[in-house]
Amino acid sequence: MEKWYTKEGICVTEQFEYLKKAGSSKFTDRHIKKAADLLEHWNGKQIEGAALIGAPLSKPSISHSGASFTPNVIRNLLQSYTTYAIDENINLNNTIVDCGDIYMHVTDLIQSQNRIKKTMEELCTTNPQMIPILLGGDHSVSYPSIEGFSKVKGKVGIIQFDAHHDLRNLKDGGPSNGTPFRSLIESGVIKGDQLVQIGIRNFSNSQVYREYAEKQGVTIYTMKDVRNQSIQAIINDSIEQLKNKVDIIYISVDMDVLDQTFAPGCPAIGPGGMDSYTLLEAIQLLGEENLVQGMDIVEIDPTLDFRDMTSRVAVHVILSFLLSKSNKNKKHINQFTK
Ligand SMILES: N=CN[C@@H](CCC(=O)O)C(=O)O
Ligand SMILES: [Mn+2]
Ligand SMILES: [Mn+2]
């Protein structure tokens, strides 16, 4: 049992054998390491490897959304899973640095988005080896996040998992969770051919936005493509598509790419979506690619979720990404292993 010391340095455990500190885990198994144990509060020193950055912004969402609660839910759920990947027979020993949350303005949404951009830019500048994992928030956070990321890293390729194009026009309101990739294209941060969209779904989009995407050179894999082709082939083709034209790749995971059965906590749920295993496999394959150096996870509203099912997928997205990075590093750059 973990020892409990008071602020004054008194060891409570020595005197009271069966007392444990409030909030500590109910049960510990000496042979189990929890994913939460990988998490370290940022001490201000250079970050090498994965870092969580909370972006608790969901006021720009078209549908009512409590996605601003998600970063803390994900942090807490890391306690529910272990570090052991049985398929690979690997124990994760990556450190996940927790940079905390970006402070949002209560009413000024553009100001909040600017804070995301500024923070991402500053963190990437001062920590060149950091792999940011931005926790939304709704999908509006991706525009400023990728803009800040690209300022430091150069030409960025994006692999977006989503039921929706998120290329809505800006005249009907925005920037919202329906416009992040339109904003990136129109502000010149990316050209359309730097964007790959996977999992785009029937009855969730419009013909005009599909045509806009095609005109801009966006690569689209619909859910039918995902069902008819292997996810390995789609990921390989996506990387091939991007790798000669970009300096770095960023993954944007809108959790509503999943079928409603796997993601009840998304505001825009629907049938005909991806299953969670396919998404996790895709993330693991992407993590093996050295060019992939950043990610965001968005559109989970914990107040709508059932038993945190959707946030639990997000935790597995993070762990699958870390797994492939540690796997990759074993073979190559040895960046994560201690
Ligand atoms: N990122 C999500 N975009 C979707 C859902 C918007 C919503 O209903 O909140 C879209 O634009 O259709
Ligand atoms: Mn979506
Ligand atoms: Mn989206």
Automatic annotation (TrEMBL):
Gene3D superfamilies cross-referenced by the UniProt entry: Ureohydrolase domain
Pfam families on file: Arginase (PF00491)
InterPro entries with a match to the protein in the record: HutG, Ureohydrolase, Ureohydrolase_dom_sf, Ureohydrolase_Mn_BS
GO biological process, one term: putrescine biosynthetic process from arginine, via agmatine
EC number: 3.5.3.8
Cofactor: Mn(2+)
Taxonomic superkingdom: Bacteria
Family: Belongs to the arginase family.
Protein name: Formimidoylglutamase
Lineage: Bacteria, Bacillati, Bacillota, Bacilli, Bacillales
